[in-house]
Structure formats: C-alpha cells, structure tokens
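Exercise: predict the fold of this chain.
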Amino acid sequence: MYLVFDIGGTFIKYTTMKRSGEPIDEGKFSTPYQDVEALIEKMVALYQGFPNQIKGIAISCPGTVDVNQGIVYHGGALTYLDEQPLANKLQQRCNVPVSIENDGKCAALAEKWQGSVKDYQQSVVLVLGTGVGGGIIIDGKLHRGIHLEAGEQSYVMEHYDHETGKATFVGKTCSASRMVNEIAKHKGLEKNDGEGVFQYINNQDPEAVTIFKRFCKNVAVQILNLQYIIDPEIVAIGGGISVQPALLAGIKEAIEVIKADNPLHMASPHVVTCHFRSAANLYGALYHHLLQHAK
C-alpha cells in the first residue's frame, strides 16, 4: 500500500491507500510551523508505524513544485518549504520512492483519474477556496507549463488600472472564502460559516443573493475566458463550496446572463462539479505517484 499526505496550513491529512485508490487508514495531525525537519520527523514517524508495508509515499502540498526534482518553491503559509527538496529528504529517511505535487494540480489529477473529467481529453479543474487553484488537462495529461505555473488562476489579472498601476486578481474576485465572509459579516454570522451563509442564499435573502451573484459572475467570466483560450470539453468546479447545489446553478445562470448581455460570445462551456471533495488532494497525489513511479 501507499502512504499519502496532504499538507495544509492547519492540518496535514494522511491516509494509507491501495493502488486502486481505496483508503485503508486515515487521520491528521497539526501542521508543524517550526521548520522542514519538524515536518519530516512527523511524516517519518507515521511511515515507521507501517513496517514493511509501504511501497511508496505521495505528497500534495502548497507552492510551486518541480515534480522531477522533488523541490517545493514558496510553499504558501509554510514559508520554510521554499526551495526545499522535500521529496528527496523524505526518501532518504524512508528508503521508498517519494513523489510530490502541487495541491491544486493534485485535485485536477484526482478528477482525471476517477472523477468528473476522467472521460475527457481536454479539461479544466477550478478549485475555489481562499484563492483559485486547479489544473489544466491537455490530451489527457496534466499541463504544467515551462515555469510550472499553468493553471494558477489566482494570479490572472481581471482588471488593470492605468491610473494607479494596480491590478485586480482572480484569486481575490473569485475567492469563495472572501464571498462567504462578506455575506457572514453582513448577516452577523461567524467567519467561515459557509452553511449559515448558504441558508441565506437558498432562502433568497436579497443582500446575500446580490453578493453571491456577483461572485458567480466573476467565476463565469473566467470560465468563458478559459473556454476561448484552451477550449476544453469540460470545466469542473471543486473546493468545499462545490457541495452546495446553488453554486453550479449560479455559475451556469451567470454564464447565460453574461452571454445575453454580450452577444459577441459564442462559447457554451460545459460546467460540472468535481466528484472528489476534501479527499481530492490525496487521490490526486497517489495518482501522480503511480504515474511517476509505478511500473
């Protein structure tokens, strides 16, 4: 079996999985913030709990990842990961093959392997969270780009102000967390109370619906842009927010509104929700490992 890690800013989820993707044991521990060695010690300790049972280790993590060299750049909130050969360090300690991939790209790989885009050769997966992650599948393979930046929608500029020189980025305008917290603030809810926010949306609260529709239009704009640039067969929407049926309906409605207001548009994107939810990064990390190491 394989040991798979999903490194997040608060917790690190782990599971042992069969080659088929079937989970066996799973759990999580608090993310160490001291240094990379503290992280590796935690991972090694888990590996040692399965003596002679682990064939390989797969990792999903934030940041730009050179999958061939096993090096992480930036690392999001975990700044100590920057320029660290995490895969090689862990491999030296555990003596089994170790693979590593960006978390958004892992989500895309999960959908390609066993999810909503598995039957398509050209697809885009958008993961809506604090920012916008995901990946682009071209000819059935994950497209990383020459600088490993393909699919990093958060850094796409939505608007550039020539007077100030400042840009508005998709990571902000299409941030699901930002939308949820804006509605929560207006309604006196706790921060990140997604369920409470969607109760207001589903009950057609005017204030909540106005904010939500603006968010859906922002996402719809980017889907239309991607349709013209990449022309995928399908676009899958993921992230915790995707469990809400109102999201897919809202995005589809927004696409039609934009097209009606701008008759120049010809595109008709095929938009669905992702199959995998919170386990997407784990499944994708394993799939990446199998592609890279399994014969």
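Check your answer against the key: DSSP finds nine helices and 14 strands in the chain.
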